[in-house]
Amino acid sequence: MISSNLTILVLFYSRHGSTRKLAELIAQGVESVPGCDARLRTVPAVSTVTEATAPEVPAEGAPYVELDDLQDCAGLALGSPTRFGNMAAAMKYFWDGTSAQWLSGTLAGKPACVFTSTGSLHGGQESTLLSMMIPLLHHGMMIMGLPYTHPELMTTASGGSPYGASHWSGLDGKKPLSEDEKRLAVALGRRLAETAVKMRSA
Predict the structure, then answer these.
(1) pTM for this model (two decimals)
(2) How many Å apart are CA 42 and CA 19, to the nearest integer?
(3) Is 140 exposed, middle or buried (0-12, 13-18, 19+ CB in 10 A)?
């Protein structure tokens, strides 16, 4: 039986697991909304060897994203660790290959949000979140963040911003998510899914 639920794509890249944990919490928020399913997907790492290819299926974790996932989704949460204040090359490489979807308007009018993690507290979280919005705006997506009705935005001493969910992972990438970071990630996923439902019903 084919599900009539809306699919929300949670697309992320993660090297040490912090961004993946945020993705899983956002997916939890998505699936707290009746009628919505989260689809977790990742992208392969970029190799310095030009002829190297990744296996078709990752050894563990979420499957690799396919362009059909963009077509199928009713909303998108996009996440990447910070690389000098910007998204990681692996995620940028994926978006560089979406010209056909841009031309056909595959993502136009769909809601989207962004999330990131950094090794240092002021390691470019906000610039990474803002820069990840740019390709989504070019695709015609409707960007949303987190409003200050979430009190955690005023109390967090780690990650979390009005631009999207974030995490301060520490230099070794092992710092656990704070309770504020967790609540904001779940809230972002829930808000994205609720918006997708409202847009579909309209």
Answers:
(1) 0.94
(2) 11
(3) middle
